[in-house]
Amino acid sequence: MTDDDRGSSDGGGDSGVDYFRRNRSDQFDRLPETDADRTVKGRPTRGAVVDWWVDRFAVPEDTFDEYTFWEKGKGKVWALPYDPGEPVPVEALGLKILRTRQEHWKPTTDAVQRFGRDAEQNVLVLDEEEAKRFVAGEEQEIEWDGDWGYLVVAHELAGDVEPIGVGLYTYGDLKSMVPKGNRRDL
User: Fold this and answer.
1) Residues 6+ apart with CB under 8 A from 85
2) What is the pLDDT along the chain (186 residues), one digit of tens a residue?
3) Can you tell me whether residue 64 is helix, strand or coil?
4) In terms of Cα–Cα distance, which of 170, 154, 153, 172 is closest to 162?
C-alpha cells in the first residue's frame, strides 16, 4: 500500500476538491471510497482501511461489506453496521477501529476483539500465564517468528482462539496495548 493509498498525500486526483477542509472533532464524516473522492487532506479511504485489515491480518474483505467507515478528528476511524447519512454531530458512533494519522496504523482493542476472530495472520496465541501478564499490561519477552508491529494477541478458550487485544511486537518483546482502564490482574 502506498502513502497515497493510506491518505498521507494531499488528496490526489484532479477533481477540483477543496483540500483546505479540515477534520472536525465535533462530528463524524464518512470516509471517501477512493482517493479521487477525498475532500480532506490526509483522510484515509474506505478501500485503504479494508485493504489494511486484509493485508495485515488476512481478515476476509467481505467482513466489512455491511459497515460504513467514519472519521472524527484526525485519524480516528470508526465502523458502523448501517448508514446514518452524514455528517453526524454526535460524541460516539459505532466502534472505533483504527488510528491512522501516525507512521504505523494502529488497530484498537475493541476492533481486534470484534474482527480479530477472522484474522488468519499476525495472530500471536499466548498460553495462560502469558495471557494473564498481557491482560495486566505487562511487557514480556516472547519468541515469535512472524511480523513485527501490531498483532492480534489471543488465547485459547474452550477450544477456540479468542482475541484479547492489541500487542506491539519488536526485538523479541511483546508490549501490551490493553488500555489502562481495561487491564486486569487475573
Assistant:
1) none
2) 444 444 443 333 334 444 446 666 777 888 999 989 888 888 899 999 999 999 999 999 999 999 999 988 778 899 999 888 777 777 777 899 999 988 899 999 999 999 999 999 999 999 999 999 999 999 999 999 999 999 999 999 899 999 999 999 999 999 999 988 777 776
3) helix
4) 154
What is the enclosing helix (H) or strand (E) of 4?
A: helix 3-6
pTM: 0.81
Q: Where are the alpha helices (DSSP H) in 23-165?
A: 46-57, 109-115, 128-135
Going by DSSP bridges, is the β-strand pair 123-126/149-157 parallel, antiparallel, or unpaired? Answer: parallel
CA separation, residue 184 to residues 57, 152, 158, 177, 181 (Å): 26, 18, 20, 13, 9
One-letter-per-residue 3-state SS of 117-152:
HHCCCCEEEECHHHHHHHHCCCCEECCCCCCCEEEE
The separation between CA 75 and the C-alpha centre of its own chain, rounded to angstroms, equals: 10
